[in-house]
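debug: dumping io for the single-chain case to check the tokenizer round-trip. Nothing else runs in this session.
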Amino acid sequence: MFDAIPVESLKRNLARVRQRIAAAAAKVSRPPDAVKLVAVTKYVGVPEIRALVELGVTDIGESRVQDAEQKIQAFEAAPAGPHWHLVGHLQTNKADKAARLFQTVHSVDSIRVAQALHKELQKLAGKTGARQALTCLLEVNVAGEAAKFGLPPAAPEIAALLRPAAELSTLRIVGLMTLAPYAENAEPVARPVFRRLRELRDELNAQHCYPHALTELSMGMTQDYWIAVEEGATLVRVGSALFEAAQP
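debug: decoded output
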């Protein structure tokens, strides 16, 4: 856990992250607004999240459903609260809360998870009326790490999930997500992972195995988000870089 973060430190850290995103985007001739910053707040509380929102952060990511619930409830009365992203692993037995709490889920990695979300969203629609489809990304274990979740990095296996998912009217699959292995020198480790995810998305789009094109790539964290931007990330999930103590 981080200690309470002064607003001035948050402001300074946020500016650094945004500047690095903009520089990475410019390096490959992308507009900086093509990349959305998702502030991952699993180690901080509601005051820090409120401060980020007041500083203009519109997208907040949480890794665990049970930890996110209280934080999300704190914003329910707000006229324009943040857009909540589930960026961590989702078990089917947490699908009911995930469907209720989040607007985007980055970690669909099986048809069972997709179907569980669909079932819960249908229940919610029955109770509360029509609801906008839940935005989802498919998690891909590009690096093949045994300790991580995700689909194999092969277009046929991802397509095998996309095709039946197209029948789930409460879900809208918009792209792919991955995590690169941690490394002190991120460049040679992370770049090929991010590049492969982009290639997989393009392969899937060429096969037309989903009703609309996949446009989103959720990749890049504190240790490597600028590399992800250079490789085409549209969503970067940054946590600790926002909450570090003030730098000189």
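debug: round-trip ok. DSSP finds nine helices and eight strands in the chain.
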